[in-house]
Amino acid sequence: MSDDKRRRHSSPVVDGLGKSASRAMLRAVGFTDEDFRKPQVGIASTWSNLTPCNMHINRLAEESAAGADEAGGKSLIFNTITVSDGIANGTEGMKYSLVSREVIADSIETVAGCEGFDGLVAIGGCDKNMPGCLMGLARLNRPAVFVYGGTIMPGDNHTDIISVFEAVGAHAQGKMDLIELKQIEETAIPGPGSCGGMYTANTMASAIEAMGMSLPGSSAQNAVSDTKVADCRAAGAAVMHLLERDIKPSDIMTRKAFENAITVVIALGGSTNAVLHLLGMASTVGVKLALEDFAEIGKRVPVLADLRPSGHYMMSELVAIGGIQPLIKMLLERGLVHGDCLTVTGKTLAENLADVAPYPEGQDIIHAFDNPIKADSHLRILYGNLAPTGAVAKITGKEGTHFVGRARVFHSEEEAQERIMDGSVVAGDVLVIRYEGPKGGPGMREMLTPTSAIMGKGLGSEVALITDGRFSGGSHGFVVGHITPEAAEGGPIALVEDGDTITIDAVANRIELDVSEQELERRKRTWQAPAPRYTRGVLAKFARTVGSASEGAVTDLMPIQPQQS
User: Fold this and answer.
1) 443 φψ region: left (φ > 0), alpha (ψ -120 to 50), beta (else)
2) How far from chain centre, in Å, is Cα 8?
3) Which end of the chain is more exposed for a tag (fewer CB within 10 A), N or C?
4) Average pLDDT of the segment spanning 71-89
């Protein structure tokens, strides 16, 4: 491809006498005459020192910039925001978490669209900034590569952030003294990187790599490592190769690619948030994807990875045996992924996997197909009179597959947390936390604090929790989220009363309220929508524009055709 075609976005910004003022501005940030003739590569960095997930990404951005420059481009680094779920969980601030995904997508689109970047590298390291990056790249539809910031190392005694959350519950139950709790708090987070289990960050990084939008191996590298530095440098060079061949996100993020991502998420035992984010990413790039697709793929794909939160191992231990590339090759050989999908290497998935070695003998992190952790998906898509348009559960089987209990209704996460911690919640309860959906929260908070308290108090198999909110990738137990329609829109979850019998069946994939249709109609007639909790600002804007969780909870809900470049 000629330089003119590779510079289709930057050329109108810097070429010709009429753009002298533009060039003058860019000379001040380091451009030379030669640089104006090069394709411009924007490096979207999510660096921030407010969270260990992103505290190291400034250096990674510089490596990607160097890689692009060495390959004949001109790089420019810009920042977008990030927030920390681990810090905000259980507080009002957590309502901004899912909102940040949309803000990140908006900001990447805004900067690249304004400045005329020809290609992009986006570097993310936490739950929402990764799908936010991908949604921004998809909207722009310019040659692009995503880089994962990498996983954190384990803390002392094989601890991580979930160890801390669950230790709080254990202390409340009298199973742990204050000295033990403080020791875990002080040592569980040893340095940079994303939360160490197969929580949302590692789940989304794996999904993005399986989709083909990251270089092979990017999702399974330690945050502080030579391999991660090399990955970033290679990503900058890869964008230049994509520009040469005019390969765009819409060429890679196809229906088959999303099916590959879903398959890998299931095999890894990944987070329920992957459902929400993959639906949102698919909507953004114009690919038709629905809850039913997760259910159908889940019928034939087993859970093979013994990873936290339900399993034993951490991501750093999976990194040590080869990451996810050997797993994807296992799935390919089994006919469970599409090998003909194009990737950011310019090659197909099958071509990338051709020389990948199998896992070493004797490892027990990734199980064989004849000895799965679970024979089918742990991600259960449930329907019933409590969730007419769907709900999402993470049921590994360790917590059982059926639960029947009495409803304990709460109108916020805080209310439920208080009753868990003071001992009011007992075996046989189904905690119903409502008005925490995308519109009702607003922001669809994660229920990590109450689920961790339940586990810490030893009630994981004796208490269920259902919500129109969602769950952290670190949540486990008998939990059902994303219940739609949400309570704020008058969905059936708004009509549940204390003492109602609720049945959750993760085999038949049903969630039912044992109340007659006539009684539900009577309750519906007296129900009143609550007043909006926020009337100004970003939360209010999100509540006014966001769609259903069953469609990805995006703020530009109409499926769009990728932009022409």
Assistant:
1) left
2) 32
3) N
4) 96
Report how far residue 300's alpha carbon sits from residue 345's, in angstroms, rounded to the nearest whole number.
Answer: 29
* Of 484, 481, 522, residue with least CA distance to 386: 484
Indicate the fold that domain 38-153+191-353 takes in CATH. Answer: Rossmann fold (3.40.50)
Structure tokens at 6: 């590779």
- The distance in angstroms from the start CA to the end CA of the chain is 14
Q: Is this prediction's pTM over 0.70?
A: yes
Interatomic CA distance for residues 431 and 425, integer angstroms: 8
Measuring CA to CA, how many Å separate 63 from each of 173, 183, 229? 48, 36, 7
In the DSSP assignment, the letter for residue 512 is E
List pLDDT tens digits, range 180-229.
Answer: 999 999 999 999 999 999 999 999 999 999 999 999 999 999 999 999 99
Question: Looking at the domain covering 379-550, what would its CATH class be?
Answer: alpha beta
| Euclidean distance between CA atoms 229 and 304, whole angstroms | 29
Q: Which residues form the catalytic set?
A: 472
Query: Could you count the other beta carbons within 10 Å of the beta carbon of residue 393?
Result: 24
Q: Which residues are registered as beta bridge partners of 404?
A: 503
Q: How far apart are alpha carbons 552 and 276 in whole angstroms?
A: 5
Which pair of structure tokens corresponds to residue 283? Answer: 């909507």
Query: Is the CB of residue 433 less than 8 Å from the CB of residue 467?
Result: yes
The dihedral sign for the CA sequence 236, 195, 276, 267: positive
> How many helices and strands (H and E) does the chain possess?
22, 12
Asked if residue 136 lies in contact with residue 109, where contact means CB atoms within 8 angstroms, the answer is: yes
Q: Which helix (H) or strand (E) holds 282?
A: helix 273-285
Query: Side chain identity at 13, as an amino acid letter?
Result: V
Q: Which two tokens stand for residue 327?
A: 């797993």
Q: What is the pLDDT of residues 4-37, one digit of tens each?
A: 789 999 999 999 999 999 999 999 999 999 999 9
Other CB atoms closer than 10 Å to residue 422's CB: what's the count? 9
Cross-sheet strand order for the sheet of 40-45 = 74-79, 40-45, 119-124, 144-148
- Name the nearest CA neighbour of 194 among 369, 54, 358: 54
Its sign, for the CA torsion 500, 501, 506, 507, is: negative
CA dihedral 413, 281, 309, 159 (to 10 degrees): -90
**Cα distances (Å, whole numbers) of residue 297 to 166, 300, 378:** 32, 6, 11
Element (H, E) at 388: strand 387-394
Which of 97, 163, 170 has the alpha carbon at shortest distance from 129? Answer: 97
Strands 119-124 and 40-45: parallel
Burial class (CB in 10 A: 0-12, 13-18, 19+), 427: exposed
User: Residue 250 in 3-state DSSP?
Assistant: helix
Residues 229 and 152: their CA atoms lie apart, in Å, by 15
Query: How far is the C-alpha of 146 from the C-alpha of 209, rounded, in Å?
Result: 9
Residue extents of the structural domains in the chain: 38-153+191-353, 158-188, 379-550
Taking each helix axis from N to C end, the angle separating 161-172 and 178-187, rounded to the nearest 10 degrees, works out to 170
| Cβ atoms of residues 443 and 511 within 8 Å | no
Phi, psi at residue 187, to the nearest 5°? -120, -10
